[in-house]
Amino acid sequence: SSGINAEWPLRPGDNRMVIAYRGMGSVYIKERRGLREYRDSNWMRKNAKYGNYQCHYAEFPVISFPMTISIVGNTLPHSGRSGTVRKPAVETWTRARIAANGTPISQNMYSNKNWY
Prior knowledge:
Layout: E1 16-21, E2 25-29, H1 43-50, E3 56-61, E4 67-75, E5 78-80, E6 83-85, E7 92-98, E8 104-111
Antiparallel strand pairs: 1-3, 2-4, 4-7, 5-6, 7-8
């Protein structure tokens, strides 16, 4: 999944951490592999809620902050108009430092599969 953008539109009452990303597939949080993405909303509702139609959104339960997390892309093989697309050898991942209030302090993007 390419172009992970760690955005956290934490909204009062939502109690969800939102990760915006581009690509075909999903994302997961390396330090919290057991944390499962909420699947109670479709892409149309998420686009209306978060407003950027160029992204996919993954909603997770809010975790304790401050923390440094690694968000990893997991591209799915698929077929479409352009033919069959295999899973890439290299995925994109982002390391983000998050403040106690849930605001990203910094983030760095990488494309390497050797670290996990």
